[in-house]
Amino acid sequence: MAAQEFRQPTLAGLDPTVNGVDPALPLYATTFVVVDLETTGGAPDGGGITEIGAVKVRGGEELGVLATLVNPGVPIPPFITVLTGITQAMLLPAPPIEQVLPSFLEFVSDAVLVAHNAPYDVGFLKAACAKHGYRWPNPRVLDTAALARRVLLRDEVPNRKLGTLAAYFRAATQPTHRALDDARATVDVLHGLIGRLGGHRVDTIGDAIEFARAVTPTQRRKRHLADGLPRGPGVYIFRAADDRPLYVGTSRDIATRVRSYFTAAEKRARISEMLAAAERVEAVECAHSLEAEVRELRLIAAHAPPYNRRSKYPERVVWLKLTDGPYPRLSVVREISPGDRAYLGPFTSRRAAELAAAGFHDAVPLRQCTHRLSLRTVTPACALAELGRCPAPCEHRISPEEYDARAVTPFATATTGDPQPVVDALLTRIEALSANQRYEEAATVRSRLAAVLRAAVRMQRLAALSGLAEVAAAHPAAGGGWELALVRHGRLAGAGVSPPGVHPRPTLTAIRATAETVSPGHGPVPAATPEESERILSWLERPETRLVEMSAGWASPVAGAARFRDLLTKAESAASPQLWSERS
Distance between CA 122 and CA 35 in Å, rounded? Predict the structure, then answer.
C-alpha cells in the first residue's frame, strides 16, 4: 500500500447534506463515512494511529475513499506487527497524524461517521484533534456493533465481531486488520443492518442512531407520537386515550424536545410510565419562550397532570400575617385580605412560613401564644415571659403603643421596606451563640435569617411588578426582529414577535388591542401565580431586554430587602455556622 492514497469522484449533481446532518434525513439519502483505524494499542492520547481507512457512501454507492499509513512517531509493538502486518519500515515514510488530519476532517465533513466499536476509533480521532489544535467537527456517529446488538439475534450470529458480521452478510471484503479492508467490510455490514431496520420502522438517520442505543420497546412503539409536531417554541401535552392530560412541558423547539422522550437519554421511570399511557401529543405554538413558559404554568395549574411534579397546585401557598386586635401575633394563613395589617409571602409550604416566623420571634418581641388577649382582662403569662422571651402583654406588662413600636412596626417595615433592625438583631444573636461555641443553635438562627430575607426580597420584587398597570418590553429574537411581551399587574396579558427589518410598534399596537384585561387586586401577586410573575421578572431582568413603555415608574424601596442579597447568598451557602461581620 502506498504511504497515502486519496481518491474521490466528482460530486456534482448530488444534493449536499447540511452541516451536522438533519436527524430526519432518510437513510437512503444519508452520506456515511465508514472509518477504521489501526493503532499501536493503548489509550487515546493524541497519537498512536498507524493507519486510517475511510469509505464515503450514499444510497449504496461508493463516493470516495481515503486511505493512508500514519507515522505514529514511536516504535511499533511486535504484537501489532504480527496482528496487522504493518512494520516499522512501512511507517517511516508515512506522514504524521497532524498532516493527515486536515484531509480526513474535510473528507468526513457533512457526513455521518460510522465505525465498528465507534467509541474506540472516535476517541483516537478526537484526542489527535485536541493535541494538534484541530476542531473536532462533532459529527453524528453510528456504531455498527451497537446496531448489530439491537438488530441481530443470538440465533443468527454468535457474537458481534466484525469478522462474524462480515461473514453473515457475505461482505465482498473480509476484514484483515488493515484499515481500508476493515472499513470496506464495515460498509457491507452497515448496508446489511440497514436492510433489517425497515422491520423496526426505522427509516431516518436519527431513528437509526437512537435505535442503536438502549431504547425501551415502549419508546420505540410510541415514537410516532412525535411526528408532525411544529419546530418552534410552545407547549406540548401528552394525552391519554380518554384525552386526559398526562404531562405538560415546554420547549423552544417542540418537535425536537418531544422526540427526546423516545431516545435512550430519557431514563426517568415516571416518564416511561407516562409514555405507556400516552396516545397522542398536542402542541400549542407560542410567540416566544416566555409565553410558552407561562402557558405551561397555567395548563399545569388548570389540569394538574399526574406526571408533572412541579407547579401543579399554585393555590397551595401560605402567608405569614399579623392578627387583628390588640397585641397582634404572627399567624400562618391560606389567604390575605385588604384589611390585613401586615403580611409576608407567599410561601410554598407551611414549614417555610414557620421558619420565617421563628426568625421574627428571635428578632422582635412578638408574642407567640395563641390566646385572644383583651385590654381589660389579664391572662396568666406563659413560660416564655418567665424566660424573658416575651414582654407579657397577656399580663399588661407592656402597653399596646410600646408593643406596636417594639414588635409590630419592625415586622411591618421589614416586609415592605427596610428589614435592617430584624437583620441586626439576628446577626447579633448568631454572633453571641458562635462566641459561646453553640454552633448548632447559631446555624438554626442562620437558617431563620435566610428564610426572612428570602421571603422579603421575593415579596418586594413581586409587589414592585404587580403594582404596574402595564409594562411593554422587547427582547431580541434569535432569527432577528423582537420578542414582545405586554405585562399587566404581574400577569402576561399579550405576546408576539415582530419580523426582522420591520419596526415593532405596529406589532405592539396589535398585541395591546387583543391583550387580556387584567384588574388590579390586593397583595404582591393579585392577578397571577407567584411562579408566573417570577418567570416574567426573570425575562424582564435579562440584560438584552428593553423596557419599551411603562404605566408608571418601576421601583423598589431604596433601603429594601434587596440590598441584603449578598448576605442572603452567604446564609444560604454557608457550610459553617461561623457567620459574618458585615451588616449593610
Answer: 9
**DSSP 8-state secondary structure symbol assigned to residue 367:** -
The span from the CA of 397 to the CA of 385, in Å, is 10
DSSP state of 404: I
Q: What is the pLDDT of residues 4-34, one digit of tens each?
A: 443 433 333 333 333 468 888 999 999 999 9
Calculated CA dihedral for residues 81, 85, 89, 91, nearest 10 degrees: -90
Among residues 177, 191, 303, 396, the one annotated as catalytic is: 177
Do 97 and 47 touch, CB atoms closer than 8 A?
Answer: yes
The C-alpha cell 431516518 sits at: 204
Distances (CA, A) of 403 to 330, 408, 472, 516: 14, 7, 44, 45
Which residue from 248, 224, 220, 222 is spatially nearest to 236, judged by alpha carbons?
248
Model confidence, pTM: 0.70
C-alpha cell at 322: 399579623
**CA gap 428, 583 in Å, rounded:** 10
Contact present, 485 and 472 (Cβ < 8 Å): yes
CB 108 within 8 Å of CB 137: yes
Instruction: Report helix, strand or coil for 169.
Output: coil
489 in catalytic set: no
Decide: 487 and 533 in contact? Cβ < 8 Å.
no
